[in-house]
UniProtKB/TrEMBL annotation:
Pathway: Cofactor biosynthesis; Fe-Mo cofactor biosynthesis. Residues 45-444 form the Nitrogenase/oxidoreductase component domain. This is Nitrogenase iron-molybdenum cofactor biosynthesis protein NifE. PROSITE patterns: NITROGENASE_1_1, NITROGENASE_1_2. The keyword Methyltransferase does not apply.
Amino acid sequence: MSALKAKIEDVFNEPGCDKNQGKDAKARKKGCSKPLTPGAAAGGCAFDGAKIVLQPVTDVAHLIHAPLACEGNSWDNRGAASSGSSLWRTSFTTDLTELDIVMGQGERKLFRAIREIAERYAPPAIFVYSTCVTALIGDDIEAVCRRAAEKFGLPVVPVNAPGFVGSKNLGNKLAGEALLDHVIGTEEPDDVTPYDINILGEFNLSGEFWMVKPLLEKLGMRVRACIPGDARYRDIATAHRAKATMMVCSTALINLARKMEERFGIPYFEGSFYGISDTSEALRQLAALLVQQGAPPELLDRTESLIAEEEARAWAALEGFRPRLEGKRVLLNTGGVKSWSVVHALQEIGVEIVGTSVKKSTLEDKERIKQILKDENHMFESMAPRDLYAMLAEHKADIMLSGGRTQFIALKAKMPWLDINQERHHPYAGYDGMVELARQIDIAIHNPVWETVREASPWDADGNLISSAPNPGENDDTPLAEPVHAFRKFANSNADEMGEC
């Protein structure tokens, strides 16, 4: 645990974080967030964060050293898409029992699990995740992984991020440290070009990175490694030979981007592929970094030509949605890079932002939101469910964009809702993704179901029709009479047994 503690202190002491730069040395090592409240979900534990970052590495077997409940169902856990192997979606766990823990069989069971995976699936690598239980009982997963790697002739990578050490975001960073310590730089590519780039913090949710990759290919840029979306183990192992890095989500992997710059001289910048303007700016910055690293200067001209062509096509496609969306009010309850990049994207099509969450956003993200919205009152650190409901029920917004956890708040308020987080089924990145986002918002807002559900019910609390039609009774043959009367009869006959609700 001493090695893990030192690693956590190193991760918290992050000079690449603007917020940390303003602290003294002692305060910097205390961490970037408040400690978790015991028993609170807090958006996930460190183990959850580490697995989120590494699981989309598609050809790797992900082995959870823990009791069964820590793994759960990974087959459809996230919307990350793969163009190759589906091994990453298979759940592997050592399934520790109380007897294993009491008898000290954890390490032996882990070794046997690694052997079974190696013999049955022959993956290029196995990632082994520590959890709360195995860390507390002192299982040395690093020693087991070293022995297994020697025995079976393949990389076995320990991911030391037990849940109790901190939040999901800390787990994201510890996953990046595992890649730096055990994967990146372990293989040398034989096909290096001046146009090789890395993309960090892109998860290829619903295949949205595939909306952007063709643009990069048109410019001759090759994605050496997209970490973690649709990644392969060897891609990550050779990522140290890229010439430039784009960081999509700074809160997750800023430590990885900074240390790759320090160790391998790969410059990085933070950008976004959400929205037309931000996508164009990301392409420009990638081209500029590559030229600084030795690529031919004509890449800049080709980039501008592609941007002009794609922007014209995207704006033309969006014109059909503008009359239906202009002036509509959106409540955005998300975080991270989406807290500012989606705001900017929506404003491009004339949508008004009435509020955006900044709970998971960096200080730099918040400054960008201030510049975009020109009003700090539209930013909220955390809004209670009842406040979200009140805002929607009072029609201060026309739609809410959020994750699945808050969808029922919008549905209870009888207001449209659109998934913007990892469970979504539509890609929103790049120029075509912006058009798709506008289309989905249009569909959600103008769905006729909302007019229907907002209408008052045709009966009162006692089941009597509120209309000029006769009150339904035993001999009434109107369409609603039989079910309404039957329900009232059932309720009255069972009132004594049911009691008050």
